[in-house]
Every structure is written in structure tokens, then in C-alpha cells.
Amino acid sequence: MRGRKIRQFALETAGILFTIVAFWVPFYFIIVNASKDVQESSLLNLSLPSSFHIWDNIKTVIAARDYMLIRAFFNSTVLTAVSIAVLVILCAMAGYVLQRRTDRATPIFNFLILAGLIIPPAIVPTIWVMDSLGIFKTLIGLILVEVALGFPFAVLLYKSFLAAIPRELDEAAVIDGCGGIRLFFGIILPLLQPVTATVIVLSSVTIFNDFTNPLYFLPGSDNVTVQLTLYNFQSQYVTQYNLLFANILLITIPPLVLFLIFNKRIVAGMTAGAVKG
User: Fold this and answer.
1) What's the whole-model pTM score?
2) Rounded mean pLDDT, 109-123
3) What residue intervals traverse the membrane (predicted)?
């Protein structure tokens, strides 16, 4: 019994140390270098600055290139909010249908969902399709890309969670006169709140922090998102590390706060979906 407690304590200590090394040390590195001037930040070390310039650096970052960061925050917020709304509705409906219906087409749809998780996205063909549809370099086109990339994982979460909701509930609602739309939005969707919270938080962090998709599918300074503003302070020959890290700090805080607030909901939704599936 005592040996088991020692092993448990050792594992917990190792987990805490890993968390410190993997997360808090890099975050400390960002804060420290965001507080330095140009010369000190170019050393890229963990030492404290001789004098703190964090507020001056933040003001410079916000005002850079005609307040591009504010425009980027607006674009990223719209992109994230609309993508999440579409993801939740579509994936909940798809997961409900796939879990409730069992016919010859069900294995095919399940295979396609799994293929969406396995097969990597192709940039050039996607651009060609978007350009043919007239949605390349538009926010709507990027929203569709983000929804397509997040669709398989969210559908699997909803499908697993819906396995715990008995079919008798659907049958009782139908007997009481509920149609398909009313059944789903009035009865089923409210029961999916735990997994919906998980999908919202995980997808929000992923979409808000996305760098490659806006770079490929939404080029242009007017369409810039928060991650692309990092280019404002680095070039081939000169990099202003103090401003770069101040920019990183500003765009890291919103998803970090969101994750810390809803951390328990994320774990609850993931566990519920896994166990009940």
C-alpha cells in the first residue's frame, strides 16, 4: 500500500514537472522577452530585463501598420464565431443521423468520416475548387475550409455521446407529435450540452490560432487574422523580437483564458463521449 502511494506521488510529481517545462517555461519566455527592449530581446534568453518596456511594446504592436492587429482580432473573431456555429449545428445533426440510422449506407458514411481524420488536406486542389466557386480570398471560403477540417472529429464526438441517449426518447417525442426539426432542436440538442461545450472550446482554440489556412486561402492585408500579424515584426534580415513576443502574448491570452475557464467542461465532454460511446 505504501509503495503504491509512493508511485502515485512520483507520477503526479512527474506530471507537474512536465507541465511546467512544456507550458509555463515557454509562456515565461514570451512574457520576459516581450518586456525587453530591442537589444536585450535579441539575446533570446530567460533573464529578466534591466528595465520593463512591456506596455510600450504592446502600444507599438497595436498601432503598427494602421492598427492592423485590431482588424485582425475582428476578422479572427468573426471567423471563429461563424465557424463554430456552423460546426455545432451540422455536426450535431450528422452525429444524430449516423447514430440513429443503420442501413447499407451507414458504413460508407462512417468510412468517409474516418477518412476525413486520416487524409491530409490538399492545398492546391482546394484553392482550385474555391477559385472555381468564386470564394477564394473570401472569409466565407475560409469558414467553409475550417468547418470541413473540424467536421470529422466533432461528428465522432457527437455520435459517441448520442449513444447514451435512448431511442425511446425519440419514439415518445414522435408519438406526442414532434416533427424531425422540433425533435432535434427542442429535445436532442439541449441534451448535448457537455459535448457541445467541448466542441466549442477545442474548435475555437484551433480556429483562432490557425496560421496555415488563412495564409493560403485568405491572403491580403485587409483579410489578415491574428496569427498573420506576426509577419509585421520579422523579415529576412531584421526581426524585432520584443515586438514579436509582445504580439504573440496578445494573441495568446484570449484562447488561454477560454481554455482555463472551460477546462473542466472540456474534460467532462471528452470523457462522457468516450465512456458512453
Assistant:
1) 0.83
2) 87
3) 9-31, 73-96, 108-129, 135-158, 183-208, 241-262
